[in-house]
Amino acid sequence: xxxxxxxxxxxxxxxxxxxxxxxxxxxxxxxxxxxxxxxxxxxxxxxxxxxxxxxxxxxxxxxxxxxxxxxxxxxxxxxxxxxxxxxxxxxxxxxx
Length: 96
Prior knowledge:
Layout: E1 5-11, E2 14-20, H1 24-39, H2 49-95
Antiparallel strand pairs: 1-2
């Protein structure tokens, strides 16, 4: 088990303390991503902190799932191409 370290991050000016075994650079990168993401939506400024957090979480998860779906579709296309090639090669060897 990796040793946990305590990290301090800032999201929209509020400090959060985390205990994690993930690299500090990675956690800092995530915090920066969240800050940039929230800044993309100026309409979030009028919402309270909880509402901003929920809406940001929903939007970030939507982006994540859309990314996963696109990659799954690409992976299926690649597998189908490989299957097609293998079937074609198998048929050629049977004909010989």
